[in-house]
Amino acid sequence: xxxSDLTRLEYTAFIKRRAAELGFMACGISRAEFLEEDAPxxxxxxxxxxxxxxxxxxxxxxxxxxxxxLVDGAKSVISLLLNYYPTxxxxxxxxxxxxxxxxxxxxxxxxxxxxxxxxxxxMQAHIGExxxxxxxxxAPVLDKAWAKKSGxxxxxxxxxxxxxxxGSFYFIxxxxxxxxxTYDGPIRDYCGSCTRCLDxxxxxxxxxxxxxxxxxxxxYFTIELKDQLPQSVAGQFGNWxxxxxxCQDVCPWNxxxxxxxxxxxxxxxxxxxxxxxxxxxxxxxxxxxxFRHSAVKRTGYAGxxxxxxxVAGPGPGAGPATEPS
Length: 325
Fold this sequence. Notes:
This protein has helices spanning 5-21, 38-47, 61-65, 108-127, 143-149, 196-200, 218-224, 246-249, 276-280, 284-291, 300-312, and strands spanning 26-31, 76-83, 98-99, 132-135, 154-155, 161-162, 170-177, 206-208, 211-212, 240-242. It is an alpha+beta fold. It has one domain (1-310).
């Protein structure tokens, strides 16, 4: 859909206003075009095998770099951020097994997809005929690249998108639509000389600033890897049994993180009360009760218990290791 400058401004203002009303913490818009800067980086990353068993990263290379191959007539990529940072009282204590904060509450795929559907429907009601698709980490879309392009943050040395005044504890999603809008521009990189994320990673997954070897990341081992966990990394996971937040926890920009207002991301009330013995003795029934609607279901009961045994280590009464300082 072609629009005048004035109409584009009005449409853009409506979209950003409605996104905020739906609970998104930020909304940025960029032109749907080929991601020229990201193409060589993605190609090199794949050539080095840093995707490991995440074979889907190898598929649809052209679609990952050009949204017009995903949506006919695509003209705009609407990037949205949704905060998931938990309140301090809802965070797990350091002396027990831990899961990544993003998995505390209801699976983000469902929460965000519902919001995106509503936003697209509202756009269609307000603007008219709008063609487009919603994407939530489930299709060949380079979320961080588009969010960066639309000015929502910069990609930090830990490869996470970082937003001034907000940090990085949020989900990224997109609407790719066939409507011309007013486009935002990127912001500068504010990582500076800081190397806290590189220094803190216990498995040295951040091989150099801005490059993460997926096959060395604790999140990869505890979620994506379906084989037995290699003994070469035994004792390096700290307390993490599903995902890992270390490189975000140490990032100075996350001192600006504020608790989410999204009630669906509140953890199951029993999660923070789980002690090491509770985790080691977890049953199928307890797993289903705690994680029925959580992203933890992705690794399944067998995967989670495998991770717990690995982190606990050998010996009677073994508990979680001490996290790196």
